[in-house]
């Protein structure tokens, strides 16, 4: 169930230009917003997970791994261009190339006996990040 909230005092707000970017009437001193509690709950849960110690660890690993993987596919596998047309065929081709890359990686790790599920482990003194939330003035419900 959605709630509609009207915020007043947009003239003093520093974010009014961004908040009213997609509105037809940008001159008013108010903004009506739709708030879906379940969506806000999941969004807040995702924010907490991303900013936690484990979330930081996952993001660091992901940022390292992705660029290297595309570089390996392009250079070492001589994959320069998609050879199929149509979204389904393109998706299938890319999935097969990525599958081939993962199989190569597994065999290389098995050969060198370096199979590990951790690439970067967070130090024990790493603390969760703090995300600043800008609170708007709440006016009245519609």
Number of E-state strands: 3
Instruction: Give the termini separation.
Output: 14 Å
Shape: elongated
**Unreliably modeled segments:** none
The average pLDDT is: 79
Alpha-beta content class: mainly alpha
Estimated helix fraction: 40-55%
Question: What descriptors fit this protein?
Answer:
single chain, 142 residues, mainly alpha, 48% helix, 10% strand
Describe the structure.
With 142 residues, the chain is mainly α. The chain is built from four helices and three strands. It has a three-stranded antiparallel sheet.
In a few lines, what is going on in this structure?
The chain has 142 residues and is mainly alpha-helical. The protein contains 4 helices and 3 strands.
Itemize the secondary structure elements and their pairings:
Elements: E1 3-8, H1 16-19, E2 30-35, H2 37-51, H3 53-75, H4 87-112, E3 140-141
